[in-house]
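Reopening this one. Same input as before:
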Amino acid sequence: MIGRRMPARVRAAYKSEMAAARATADPEARWRHLERAHIISQPWPWPHTRHHIAMFALAVAQPPPRTSSTPCPDPPAVQSARKVRSPFLHHAA
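Same output, byte for byte:
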């Protein structure tokens, strides 16, 4: 659909979702509106690009996810690799 204009009904739905995303303070609701706008705008490059910029801006504005204070255990492959004795690796005695 490159080069073709977005039909009026589709443009109205897209603008409605983008406006709703801007209007809400709830990040989860904002993501839902942006997801719907994403689906609507996919066939048209410029609105779709504009939408991706809005999603990126929201992602940057959100605080980073909290991490657990407990360290993750090493995966089994790493644990077994540590048990291998190799003349090329320096092992503490």
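So the earlier flakiness isn't reproducible anymore. For the record, The CA atoms of residues 13 and 51 lie 13 Å apart.
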